[in-house]
Phosphodiester glycosidase family protein (Paenibacillus septentrionalis), 355 residues
Amino acid sequence: MNNVQFVNRLMMLVIAPFIGIFIGIVLLTSSKTVEQDIASATSLELSDGKAYHAAAEALAASTDLAKVTRNNIEASYAKYNETNELVSSLIPVVKKTLDYPYAIYDKAISEKLGKPSATINSNKLKAQLYYKSYDHFKGYLVKIKLKSSSAVDMVLGGDELGKAMTTVEAAKKHGAAVAVNAGGFADAGSKRYPLGTTIIDGSYVNGFHPSTNNLFFAGLNEQNELIGGIFKEKEQLDKLKPRFGASFVPILLQDGKKKTIPAKWKTSPKRAPRVVLANFRDDQLLLFVTDGYNTDGSAGATLAEIQSILVQYDVQDAYNMDGGGSASLVFNGQLINSPSDGQLRKLPTHLLFFK
């Protein structure tokens, strides 16, 4: 029996008792109507012996019908209780069946990533941290399975546009278990503004900005799915129903295939700290942060190297977020990577995850 057949039969078991109860109620209502009619006839024609006896016989018949109906309803309730117990016992089986494909795919991903160094598992999310060493840099990966819409959000670096704070400060202020810096920025005097299109709580923070110079928008929609791409028209982005997101450059992977890296980003800088927001085929998210600029002997990663690593991990879509001195990863309240500036940079946007 396949999953569809199983669910169909399960629904039949659940619905059948209610159908029986409905029929019983209809019959009981009908019997009450008969009793009322008989009572009326009896009061009007009590002196008529024939009418009286006919009414008495009808009353007896309706009383018997009411008893049968009552017994049927009680039996239906009993059957309902039995069915309810059966359904309750089947729920774990159904859940296990529905989770089976996810478990298989997740196991395959986990085998590629190795053993996690730390895990956060709650009713909102499951986040696993991995430490990696590559030829020219150290990497930190966080695989995240979202279980609730309230498990993730993006925030500005302050109470108003133009303000900034470090990722650690943002995590502490909002009570996030995992945090990473988000989009790029542009400075104007003492203010630091998000670069390009930025959306918070479904609203455009500083209007829609058509994609230019390979600038993309990436974020999550109302179903907690990763969305992103190049958008020339606001209507294109609106169709995806973004809940939040930020902008930077370039797109690394789409549908599991490498995208062409713009010439400028192949050499300027060639190696650097990187921050990547990505997903797997089962919609789990992946945060990939690297050290660089010779921090602890690390020279940093090229975008081509990042692409190859992500393909090996079976990543589907990947977006290069703001890196360099902005690269910041927090896990369980602790800063995980080594900021290349020697200290954390204050930034205008942060991606937060809550347990």
Q: What stands out?
A: Residues 36 and 187 are 84 Å apart (CA to CA). The mean pLDDT is 84.
